[in-house]
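Example 3.2
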Amino acid sequence: MAEIGKILKEEICRLARKEVNKALSPLRTASGQLKRASIDLKKRLAALEKIAVQLEAEANARRREMLAPDPVEVKTARFGPKNITKLRKKLGLSQRDFGLLAGVAVGTVYLWEKGKAAPRGRTKTALVELRKIGRREARKRLETMQPAKEKTGSKSKKKQATGKKKS
């Protein structure tokens, strides 16, 4: 009698597996198709991203060519203290940010604006180029030059980070 129960149990399990396989077969097929479609889309996305990077590089190169000043233009350009201040304010930049874009220190920008020094060489070329851009372009360039600063927390968070405890 125990053998009949065992045989019935095995038969029920076999039939149940057969029914489950029937029910899951279309799902497996659909799952395979979705996986293949997903792989195909990932490949296409990678190709499109590669093209986008190339197009952006080409656009940046064209923009640089358009902004690149002529040697004659650089030679004849004059930058007085008022002109430098006016240019900096037109771009909406602090002396520090203006110095970053021009490739000089903050003190140098201060000296230019006070009339105690004048731009020369590569910095003069950079200033001629800065004349041709607007606020948005200046902000973009600054963002690419300096990574986003992390926001600092409260004093207690700083102390926790350094390992000091509040007493």
